[in-house]
Amino acid sequence: MDGKMDNDKINEFWELENMGINSQENINLEMQLLEKFEENTTFTNGRYETKLLWKDDQSQLNNNYEIAKKRLFNLNDKFKRDKNLYLNYKEIIQQQLKDGIVEYANCEPNNTCPGYFMPHHAVIMEQKETTKVRICFDASSKSKGQVSLNDLLYSGPNLNPELLLRIVLKFRIGKIAMCADIRRAFLEIGIKENDRKYLQFLWGQNNGTYLDLEGQPIRALKMKRVPYGVNCSPFILAATIRTHLKKYPHLEVTQKLNDLYVDDFLCSVETLSKQSVLSICGMLFDPLGMLTPLTVRIKLLLQNTWERDLQWDEPLPPDIHETFQSWLDEVDTASQISLSRPYFLNAET
Fold first, then answer.
1. Which of 95, 137, 165, 211 could form a disulfide with 229 if both were Cys (CB 3.0 to 4.6 A apart)?
2. Which residues cross the membrane (predicted)?
3. Region 284-306: what's the mean pLDDT?
């Protein structure tokens, strides 16, 4: 083990030893970053757009062109050994150009081109049903004595729930499991125009059987959406999801935030039964009887389950299940009901 340990590694070790404990300084910074994200984020033409989380002046950032070019040639060598990988890679870039996820940069790629070039590589996921090849970027790439893009960005606070306690253990409670993921989650969030020049990458201009870089010019492209490999991308995704769900302030939606880990959704539920109806009925607290139109209906429904002699854990019949679900949907609107304190609003004081 080296006698001199990297400061970041020591900090990481300390944070792991003190799980869940943050200094007031860190808490203040996290609040500032959340406010910064809200200020920078807009919803335009059906899409959220935001800025990168800069912590230092971008002027000190070298464009990293030579390293990105060298890494592209290394990738080309890999393509020559694996034709299918190249075809998949090329198809992804062509589709992203078509979908407006990627666009051509307005500069000839060289050492004087402004911004930053990210090397890229393939991540192969054979276990995936759909996307088996994903293009990932290396925003930590830098020359000796220089800084990388990630060096100048905050990673942002961790908004994802604790994986073991909040996700995995809760996932094992219910009998029925559900899982899903948000398709192209990162790529659905736009990056503001001024920051896109820092998300450039290199690719061959003409696509042949293989990417023969020796015989064709290299083109500069840039990401219009949030890329994999930039350290603030997970925060941007999580913060955007929360911003969106705030538009739908229903109880179920709020609870589902704790079932999301990055772009993956995991939860488990029990089948609705007579026990479920009684349990939910017992949660209602209405000492003044203001919600009587709602509470009477659930009590009548519960009475119906007894008349049919349903067992505690027996699934509800379709007609009762439908009526109960309709009642639950109406209960969501009860939180919007407001009552004035005085009996007589026009009474003189």
1. 137
2. none
3. 79
